[in-house]
Design a protein that fits this description.
Layout lengths: L1 E5 L4 H12 L3 E6 L2 H10 L4 E5 L5 H11 L6 E4 L14 H29 L3 E5 L12 H24 L4 E5 L4 E2 L2 H5 L8 E2 H13 L4 E2 L3 H10 L4 H16 L1
Parallel strand pairs: 1-2, 1-4, 2-3, 4-5, 5-6, 6-9, 7-8
Helix pairs in contact: 1-7, 3-4, 4-5
């Protein structure tokens, strides 16, 4: 069995790679920082193919697929992504467009291409690393929240299509809250409380994927929060989210 993981050089991508390797999966790990991928490979006792690519560039997304399509990938994990804190009118347009490319276009392209292969074989798994942000609007982190809404809802729709097709292909959306990774450093923000450990969140995501769970939320607190948010007016939700994200920007 072979798993392809984007954004595998750190955080949950790296921890998912380690967990899958412990279960005997061979890996294809993809990221921009080749040195970190090589370090990861040295730690694992399975076959690991290292691919250095910047998936912000659309041509590299197609290049990746063409590089691995003969490897018979069984599991695709779309983990690469980043955020950017700040007021929408103040944040960098160039950086936001890069975020849209990575968080949306890359996930969309890889999901479609591998899903077509998996449907032909009538087997395979796709795990899209989304976010609890995928169910909300996010003042002070607005573009990131919007991208995660896209990937979460896309995954949900594909799941329903597969169910009606009676396909054995599994797709799932991993929707954690704050996780202790490099996300906040890249996004230029700061989480003060409530972060999950990346290794625990990653293990939970993989286990639930193999149990064919569609929406994977790793903490009771976040599950309860998302459930209760259904009964809160949008105006109040926006105020609450604004204050939460504002504190991270400071």
């Amino acid at each position: 069995m072979i798993a392809l993981i984007t954004g595998a050089s750190s955080g949950m991508g790296r921890d998912m790679a380690k967990y899958l390797a412990s279960k005997g999966w061979d890996l294809i790990v993809v990221a921009r920082r080749k040195n970190l991928l090589i370090d990861l490979k040295k730690q694992l006792n399975v076959n690991v193919k290292v691919i250095e690519l910047d998936l912000i560039k659309e041509e590299n997304v197609y290049k990746l697929y063409n590089m691995v399509k003969k490897d018979k990938v069984d599991l695709l994990i779309n983990n690469a992504g980043f955020g950017l804190f700040g007021k929408f009118w103040e944040t960098s347009l160039e950086r936001e467009l890069e975020m849209i490319n990575l968080n949306i276009k890359t996930v969309h392209i890889l999901t479609k291409l591998f899903l077509q292969d998996f449907i032909q074989r009538d087997e395979g798994f796709i795990l899209n690393v989304c976010s609890s942000a995928g169910f909300l609007a996010g003042p002070n982190l607005s573009t990131y929240y919007a991208t995660k809404n896209y990937t979460t809802k896309l995954t949900m729709a594909i799941h329903e299509e597969l169910k009606h097709k009676k396909s054995h292909v599994t797709v799932a959306a991993f929707c954690p809250g704050p996780v202790n990774t490099e996300f906040t450093k890249v996004a230029k923000g700061n989480f003060t409380v409530g972060q999950l450990e990346s290794s625990k969140a990653s293990k939970y995501a993989i286990d639930q994927l193999f149990r064919k769970k569609l929406i994977i939320v790793p903490s009771i607190k976040m599950k309860l929060g998302l459930f209760l948010s259904r009964f809160v007016p949008w105006s109040l939700l926006l105020k609450m989210t604004y204050q939460i994200q504002y504190r991270k920007c400071k």
